[in-house]
Amino acid sequence: MNEVYAFIEAEKTTHPVAFLCQLLKVARSSFYAWQAAAKARAAREAADDASLTRSPCSTSPRKAPTVPRASTPNCGAWASG
User: According to the UniProt record, where is the region Disordered (predicted)?
Assistant: First the structure.
């Protein structure tokens, strides 16, 4: 369904949104709800990307090394095996 809404977003400068929604058989309110949620989606995706680049051992903003927590798996010298 996101592809349909993205298509409407791209084409809304050349055709009225009401016409596009009718043609594609989607509710205008659904399109506008999708459009309003775009900011929240972008923020969530940015947070997900940031969490993927952060190591579970580097949660401290300080530059000095810290002792890893017992609940953090496989951190440096504290890792078993």
Answer: 49-81
What does the block give as tokens for 37?
């949620």
Within-domain flag for 77:
no
For residue 7, give the nearest of 16, 20, 19 by alpha carbon. 20
- Joined together, the tokens standing for residue 61 give 């903003």
Q: How many structural domains compose the chain?
A: 1
Residue with tokens 């929604």: 21
- Domain contains 4: yes
User: What is the rounded CA–CA span in Å between residue 54 and residue 51?
Assistant: 5
Range of the domain at 16: 1-40
8-39 per-position pLDDT tens digit: 999 999 999 999 999 999 999 999 999 989 88
Mean pLDDT of all residues belonging to the chain? 79
